[in-house]
Every structure is written in C-alpha cells, then in structure tokens.
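Figure 2 data, in text form.
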Amino acid sequence: MIVNRDINPKRDVYYLGAKTIEILSIEKNKVVDFFDVFQELNASEDISINLFILTLDWLYLIGSIEELQQGKIVKCF
C-alpha cells in the first residue's frame, strides 16, 4: 500500500513526488538529468536511490514524467 499511517510523512512517495515535481518545475528544460534531480532532492530530504526510483515510478504512473531515456527524466508538464 502506498499510504501507510505508520510511516514518517517525509518518507512517503506522495511527499517525495511533490518535492521532485517542485525540483523539476524549476528546470527550464523538458529533459532533466536523473542524477542532478537525485542530488538536489537528496540534499534536502536525505533519501536513498531506491526510494528515489520508487518516487519516479509513482510519478510515471500518474503521468507527471515519461520514461527515462538514457539517464534523463522527461517532464510531462
């Protein structure tokens, strides 16, 4: 289950997805480097690469990003 009442809200994919969208919205380019976004999010939220990938999976499922292409994230907004 994605929503868990026992988890810290800052570890939830909804929260991390919102923070990732915030980072992506600052970028002017439609295509953004995977590791640049990870480093920026990790600096503020201190997350693992696995949790970041899970967050990207969530954003893909809801249509906020497209498939990763050669280490790049393609925004849909």
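Caption note: The mean pLDDT is 89.
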